[in-house]
Amino acid sequence: MKMFSLFAALGILFFSVPSFAQETNQEITPEMKMWMDYMAPGDMHKLLAKSVGEWKGKITMWMAPNTDPVTSEGTAVYEMILGGRYLQSKHSGVFNGMPMDGLGLDAYDNAKKTFYSIWIDNFGTGVMQMAGKYDAATKTITYTGTSVDPMTGQDVKVRETIKFVDDNHSEMEMYMIDGD
Question: What are the structural domain ranges in the chain?
């Protein structure tokens, strides 16, 4: 409880400083400006927001090299949360005859100029974590990160790309990376 109170107090301090400065006509210091820039949703958050809505998905997965793919369909609902700073997604479908539910959270860090993505689902108990950059020329975010291999309990490298085809279509590819 004490840690929550400390974090809550720090959050109130950091979020009230910019508004206090504006309300009192106090000069905005460079430090205040940095916080204000860091916390304000920008163009990359607008890019994430293009995914808001209900989506249907067609999933094709290869369980091993040189095997036939397993296909399924699913749905996802995307919404911006916390004042347009994060994109939350809720996915559901059936995969290999089993119900599948997953949650995603995507973010853009204004200071690091980096996208972040985490994924959890009912097919495991681990968390996939990735970071990436946006390529405006191809309209693609390319993430790399780690996920757990349930056979070994060790992290494996993963790569994911999300291409924004148009306002009503996107393509996502995700796969494990062999080797370094």
Answer: 2-40, 44-177
Mean pLDDT of 111-140: 96
Q: How far apart are CA 136 and CA 140, in angstroms?
A: 7
Nearest to 100 by CA among 118, 128, 74: 74
User: Which residue, among 50, 52, 72, 53, has the nearest Cα to 61 in the 3D structure?
Assistant: 72
Q: What is the sign of the dihedral through the CA atoms of 37, 39, 44 and 47?
A: negative
Question: Which pLDDT tens digit goes with each residue over 129-176?
Answer: 999 999 999 999 999 999 998 889 999 999 999 999 998 888 989 888
Which pairing describes strands 114-121 and 128-135: parallel, antiparallel, or unpaired?
antiparallel
For the packed helices 2-23 and 30-39, what is the interaxial angle rounded to 10 degrees?
Answer: 110
Strands 128-135 and 140-149: antiparallel
Secondary structure of residue 120 in the 3-state scheme:
strand
pTM confidence score:
0.81
- In the chain, % helix, strand, coil (3-state, to 5) comes to 20, 50, 30
- What fold characterizes domain 44-177? Lipocalin (2.40.128)
